[in-house]
Design goal:
- The protein is of the alpha+beta class.
- It has one domain.
- Helix content is 11%, strand content 14%.
- Strands 1-2 form a two-stranded antiparallel sheet.
- Strand 1 and strand 2 form a beta hairpin.
- The longest helix is centred in the N-terminal third of the chain and has 8 residues.
- The chain starts with 12 loop residues before the first helix and ends in a 27-residue tail after the last strand.
């Protein structure tokens, strides 16, 4: 199975930032890849605080738990 000609398979850092928003460089975000190759952003704050969604709708533009990673 192949992607359409306009579909990008891999993106650079700027593309990821635009697609994920704040989650792209948050210490609480972890990228999870499925067996089929799909990738998702898991918010690890959701494990201890139900206020945060486990898989937030992207791009995240505002978040109370955001902490920039180094």
């Amino acid at each position: 199975m192949r992607y359409a000609a306009l579909m990008k398979e891999k993106g650079n850092g700027a593309d990821r930032r635009a697609a994920a928003g704040l989650c792209a460089d948050c210490v609480h975000a972890r990228r999870v890849e499925s067996v089929r190759g799909s990738s998702f952003i898991l918010c690890e704050l959701s494990l201890s605080d139900p206020h945060f969604p486990k898989y937030p709708r992207l791009p995240v533009l505002a978040c109370d738990g955001y902490k920039k990673s180094c």
